[in-house]
Amino acid sequence: MPQQKDSPRRSDAQRNRERILQVALTELSRCADAPLSVIAKKAGVGQGTFYRNFPNRESLVLEIYRHEMRQVAESAEDLLAGRPPDEALRAWMDRLAGFAMAKAGLADAIRQVTGAPGGPAKPSPTPVARAAELLLRANEEAGTIRPGVTSDDFFLAIAGLWQLDPHDDWQPRAARLLDLVMDGLRGGARGE
Length: 192
Fold this sequence. Notes:
By secondary structure, the protein is mainly α. The chain has eight helices and no strands. The chain starts with 7 loop residues before the first helix and ends in a 6-residue tail after the last helix. The relative contact order is 0.11.
């Protein structure tokens, strides 16, 4: 049976879902208690469309987190396909910093959802760890970073990202921190 292309209706539904997630990320980062009706209105969708996609606050908050994490994880392969490994790793670190700031902004909403008795568990960061491992191994093979760096090492080295205030001018501080980490990863590389 031939595979059918996405119908315009499915494309519209996907665009609605993406728009809801974008607006919700912004609104919930500002205020963990942002009314869902406000999110739906700012996303330009009706209540029925909103609740078909996200039946409750918990499902919305967790999907934002998963969506952002997936975006960061999937960007690793794209970056490696178009750049040398060390440039791909450094660009991915910037993408990860953006995720860290979005997550920090959403922290209150995530805590409300996952902290309730019997509430859902926070999604595992496994896809992001796998992406880091992919980038680290590509760099090790290219001789652009010191051998033997694990994803655990990497995340401990960049842990300072989670100390930055997402409501401040965090980009220059994150860039400086990530440049320092990148310099440290390069020390002892085969190419040095």
